[in-house]
## 1
Amino acid sequence: MMEPYKLTLSEAADLIRAKRLSPVELIRSCLDRIEKVEPKVLAWARITPEETLAEAERLERLLQAGTSLGPLHGIPIGVKDIFYTAGLATEAGTKILKGFVPSFDATVVKRLREAGAILLGKTTTTEFAYFDPAATRNPWNLDHTPGGSSSGSAAAVSAEMCLGAFGSQTAGSIIRPAAYCGVVGLKPTYGRVSRYGILPFAWTLDHPGPFAKTVRDIAILLEGIAGPDPLDASTTFAPRLTLLASLDAPPSGLIVGVPDRYFPERSDPSVASAFKEVLKVLEGLGMRIREVTLPESFEAGVEAGRLIMHVEGAAAHLDRFKARGAEYSPKLKALIEAGMLVPGVSYLRAQQVRAVAIQAMRGLFQEIDLLATPATPTPAPEGLRSTGDPVFNLPFTTFGLPALTVPMGFSPAGLPVGLQLIGRPFEEALVFRAGQVYESATEWHTRRPPL
Amino acid sequence: MEDVKRWVSGLLGILVEEKSVGESPETWGTLAKSLKAVYTVPLDPLAEPAITLRLETPEEDSRRGGDDGTL
């Protein structure tokens, strides 16, 4: 058998269920991998090897006694360092929260543990999940950014230090780093996954979501943690999620819309050429490609999202900022200072415009089943001072629509580029079907960085 | 602008320097563009903002608790 750390999450889960791989063996393999590559990648804020091994031993004993906790039994997972973890520090990439140890788990973490996952550690984040970068490097080229803000989650999965990870997206913080690092990432529909126990950045824009090596792995992770949570009112009306049952259903006949503006003019040639090939593959798989005109309110809706992020970001940080403003990094400091000056009427205007744009997107989705775009305008930029541009992701974060990224090729410099598939609210299953069939027809997702 | 900034900062109890260390021209440029953009869309007088208010039942309310991380 190959080194266990190289397995996909679903392969490892199957082997554990069949008692052909032990959780302890898998954890040891991941810890060895971390020891080898973490000094180069710097994806972890902290790991807890002793506790992790003890938990793996406990889960192994349970299996031997005939008890499986669920589909994630024995699977090592990383969680972005803004998710509360009981008894384990949560520092959000800032010295302001140094030493802060929550007394309870975020709902996502609680559900991961209940499904049998092992929390390997906390992955790095940009400061408070905004744009001031972490030290993390892109596993495909250490001189390039891994993206952000969920920098560590994307890099840890890409470098095969864990089999899955969780992050969050307020603008482009899941899809962008996943695409830059050549892994699969999902920003679910707003309300699909509980935000309870995750440090907020912008309440009406924050979305938690998973990273993994394949679409199937993402489906397993999402099924493990999604669903209504009485502690997060946004999740109350989410319909039941069934992904795995329909994952392999043929998506032939699906109408895939390709926007006629906004994305093409911003795409780098290497991204545009990979995306063109994607469309041929999707067509070959029986999907119908249709160029679509985005609603007139699309761009204003995106700007509304940006304005909302400034105001809600300022509001979320105001008390801390009053006490310790001097310790904030420059980009977040600038956002807070600007956001607090926006008139209340303009914030509400932005929320009204956002509602208009969401309604217009609903109209567009009456003509198509999915929307396809590149995940980012360029491959991961060189340097570590910026985490790249979320301009292709902010629209769908603002509109709350589910977005999945799957690797779609490589730039001439050897950096991965990603496809972004967007669906109707709460129709993750359809997005996954298209992503899964594309992934099965290509081999981009099987490539690993040369670490 | 500086007067407005001083007034709002004073109301919120935040000390903001006239030329803040963190202030970058792109932040203000970005925000100005966003502010203008949201006034280009004509609105129905009945248009509601994309925010919902859902009141908790007493049972849900009692399930909340613990550390909120506030310093």
## 2
Amino acid sequence: MHFRFDIIVDYIPLLLKGAALTIGISALAIVLGSILGLAVSFGKMSPRWYLSWPTSGYIHFFRGTPLYVQILIVHFGLVPAFIGHTDAVIAAITALALNSAAYTAEIYRAGIQSIDKGQTEAAQSLGMTGMQTMRFIILPQAVKRMIPAFGNEFIVLVKDSSLVALIAAPELMYWSNVMRGQYLRVWEPYLAAAFIYLILTYSLSKLLGWMEKKGVAG
Amino acid sequence: MTARPIIEVKGVHKSFGANTVLKDVSVQVEQGEVVVVIGPSGSGKSTLLRCLNGLEKPESGEIRIEDRSLLVAGAAITQIRSRMGMVFQQFNLFPHLNVLRNITLAPVQVRKLEPAKAEELAMSLLGKVGLSEKAGHYPASLSGGQAQRVAIARALAMEPHIMLFDEPTSALDPEMVGEVLAVMKELAAEGMTMVIVTHEMGFAREVGHRVLFMEQGMIVEEGTPQKLFDEPQQERTRAFLSKVL
């Protein structure tokens, strides 16, 4: 077999364009998912059933069903229901964020619950409110412990974003599919895509390792 | 007319599951009084102390702090707590903040003190507990005795009217007990109202105005240190004292 680097070179602009969208979709999904996940984790930890039940159901649903199915539901159901028509990029970001929130919620919960109860009691004994305790005492300590788990989740999310090629969001995987279609070859498009994903996830894990060492929010 | 007691506990019951920890406990503490609570482990003395600032909620009974009920719905519990310092057996310093920030955090966030004012206050309190040079250090670098003195300074920074001590020296190496007790003695001499759960009988005798002996969730006997230690009236008190003295 002759490996044709020339067709990869031809496609580099499109693959990079796709990679840029992969980064954009993943980054937005990570940010939105982390924010939503924090809210979901508070809901799940709440002693009030009308907060803990729905959030618990949310986590079960998004962790217990395939992301593939979730993407289709969001693309053909949820997004049109809100904006009247569908949009692949919006659907991709929404589906990945909703999915990621379920996982980050559990990361937050584990991190928060790993902080010694004495910390909360000391803060309370000083007259701090629940919000103040969370913001100044619990979260700064918990976030440090969450960084490795967040790192894993972000890397998974970047890889899972390839599934949105399914709804024709023009990201990296979409363009490598196009490339296969044009040249009817498999190795070049898919190995090129795999290599770019590897660069993305490797850089991300280096970045997170560096943040962990720096002790973010310390 | 005499002032009402600063702490009033009436008929408090508390249980954890099937285990009853406090049975109809009533106690009053006057302004400026130093009350020491002694008794075997599991007697409910720490639970009683924790009820006083709302860390535990009794099932029934009444607790009033400075004439404000702690147990009614919507009680201004954070406000009541902010005037009541608590010192824990395990110190519970905030490990992510240095000593100075441990002390200034609550005054700035809760009392809304200017940060500069809070730092000034913190430095003077660190001087008082003999740790001025540790202001920039993190809790992990402190010895147990130093950590507990910082914890006391942190509680004092809220300028509390009452100080609660939950076995403050039980987690310390023996050679560090003295430095913590010295700080507490000084506080008592300044007229601070204090409730202290401790196993330090010598300290109880020397500093306490009144000693409560608790066993099985009840106050078995109370009196001045002289009376309780030298002429205990109850058989159970005598049995306990014979084991620890």
## 3
Amino acid sequence: MDVLELTGTWVDDAVRAVLLWTAIPSLLYFLAIAVQQGVLVLMGWVDVRASSARRDVLDLAETATAPVSMSLTVVMAAYNESAVIAESVRSVLALDYPDHEVVVVNDGSTDDTLEVLRRTYDLVPSDREVRAAGNLQVRGAVRGVLEARDPAVPLVVVDTENSGRADASNAGLAVSAKDLVVFFDADSVLDADALLLAVQPFLDDPLRVVCTGGNIRAVNGCRVVAGRVVEEGMPRPWLARLQVVEYLRAFSLGRAGWSRLGALMLVSGAFGVYRRDMLLEVGGFDADTIGEDFELTMSLHRWCRRRRRAYRLVFVAEPTCWTEVPESRAVLQRQRSRWHRGLWEVLWKHRGMLLNPRYGRIGMVGLPSFWLFELMAPLFELVGLALILLAIAVGAIDPVLALAALGISLGIGILVTVLAMLIEEGARRRRTTVADLGVMVLCAVVENLGYRQLTAVWRLQGWWQALRGSTASWGEMTRTGFATD
Amino acid sequence: MTLPWLTPHLLVTVLVTVWALVLLTILATLLSHAARVRTERSQRALDEAARPLVARFVLDDPVDPGLRATLRDARGAFGDRVDERLLAVLEGITGEGRERTVALLVDRGHPARLRRRARSRRALVRAAAIRRLGRLALPADADLVRRATADRAPVVSSVAARALAAYPGAASAQAVLDLLRAGASVPQLVVVNSLIGQGEADEDALARIRQGLEDPEARVRAACAQVLGELTSTADAPLLGELLRRDPTAGVQLAAAGALRRVGRAGAVPALLEGTRSAWGPVRLQALQALLALPREVAAPALAEVARRGDPLLEPLLPRPADLPGS
Amino acid sequence: MAHVLAVDDDPDILELVALKLRSAGHTVTTAGSGERARDVLAAHPDIELAVVDHMLPGMTGVDLVRALRAEGSALRVLMLTARSQERDLVGGFSAGVDDYLTKPFSPRELAVRVRALLDRR
């Protein structure tokens, strides 16, 4: 079939050349991403099925009385959260877990967050210390450590000067005294049995499992009572609805799939459980990076593989953390731009692991996948789209062919999303209404008509900003001697 | 530019296939959802009918023979719900009401029907049957439940492991430990819970668990150590201390250190001190927590030694110098 | 012959508790969660005693008791618990629970303990 119909001017020669050079790589990229998605769908399905069967067996109401040998610290960094902090802390203290403590780090709030805590929990000075030792560094100056007067309330509050969430989390880590650590946002909502479920892999394999991650969903549109989601629902604004579908895809396929492949690349800071000894080994969060949770996950992989320690990172599909997603375009834009910038910074920082056989599956499969299908995806998407439109406009390509190609691409994108929905529907113990399912299907279609393209633009913006600023920070990185460890 | 294989036919086929798959998936999702909602709704309605009847039956004294007959003869979906409600009662109640409930379940043909279902080809049916047999805890079913631990589906073997807590004894303890040997993916919590229940109820089971400390399989040793710790028998402290010191597998050392938190004695201090030097973070943590659980005078020298070492992982747990006598 | 509240998210246990106490002559209102229990208590100030399950979704049994005591409630509380671990019992007593009953329990014993708590004036 003759693909190009040209009229023989130099414009056409130029267009022909461009299309020739980009057609094959684009096609290959397209096929590669389709294969990757296919594999993730399959693995995601396997993982969610196994997880759900396990959940049936593990009757947690009964086994909550069983010995759980690993104690847990919940670290909450709080900045100007006076409206929600008391309720949030209360709901975390009430979580179903036999031995846990809560460490709240007041990151130099300018409102009365600290006062609210002091009043609500009757705080008195504590003799616990923020000890930053070994690889762990805490930059924010510590103004004081307080604890609840009632010894039955395992609450510690660290008051520091403002130094950012990553550094505040490190301060909380430095004062923790339990076996495991969970980092938690004051405005997130956890299911009551979420911690017990998220901790199961540690119980099954305490020396190999170093980190587990749970599911994250949008809380917009859900009914929250006393710090728990009592009723699920789709949010009303379309922007939020589109994000609900995105999260579904990212977690049911992305995380579940990669976890099953043994290459879980990202455990979200919003809901990750880590072994405290491992966190101290890698020095907690890197306060200089924007994508600090991704950076932490990569550091764990790096540390364990360099020392040839058998280790596992596990995604647990059942426990859910509910978090608020942006409902305004401006906030969403900043978020996506920041995420992509963080992605770039971390990928660049750990570029030594890319295609390095020393790092096994992470280096040879996971990282190349992230570079190609996460980092460069917006570039390929937008450029590909632009080229096809250009070709049609110039009349250089058979429009029917072009439309067919677009139709296939659109179809595959939607297929992946509805498969994620099917997997979820088969596994979830919750109630989604038919109306909600309908809305989700609609979103799966609509997101390709502008939303994806828009987020691609924002991601490229973030990447560009990072590249422009990177000349300065690259210098900093060499100065701190990052490459050795 | 020509791409000979890129025929319109191919494109159309791919296009149609992809979109057909999309529609099929959406359909499948909606069907699965509808089926689930329908089952849940009907189950809820039947439960609401069965529950008050069962409650009255359990509590009435003397029993209304008409009510008993109604429950005994319940069939089909309603009968299934009656079974579930009766079994739920078994979990929550002791005394006369419980015996009455077991008698009714036997009358409803229970053990026979469940034994048949335990041979079903579908794993979930087998698992449900084993679960119910475990709750009934009829002595005649001990062998069946024990054999179910060797089932090829992890769901069934896990449920069987838990059910064996109702049949405590050396053979049952062995069956649960064998699960670990086979490397089946049974949740640790289920195994440990079952063994604790058995160890508490039966001397022979406890003896078998103690023997398990010397088993060639590391997972077995670790599970036995953990269980002995929970059964809080300080007589086991020397054995556990030896395990912490001598066992080649870190996972076993970890379990032993964890167990010593509950049953540690003065004699275990040297082993625990060594444990705080382990290359494995979790082992160091458990060992220190075991030392902290001992009377302060007994552990003080060891704690002072740990404090001297300045291990960042252990420091947040150490008591203030003022709390350490004689340091 | 008092007005009693039963709180449990397990509908089977809830039904048994309610029926047993009704047959002992009390008026029983039920609630399936801590939040619902508070609503009921606010609507019925004549409730003298509550049988509360330890493990409730959302607001736990101990949370509920603590909140009620903080409001100055003189309600008698009998807590049903599957946990017999020391830590929880101590925590419950210090929160204001009057008596405990471990599951599985005997319905007769439940009625006896309720009677005893009501008689304790």
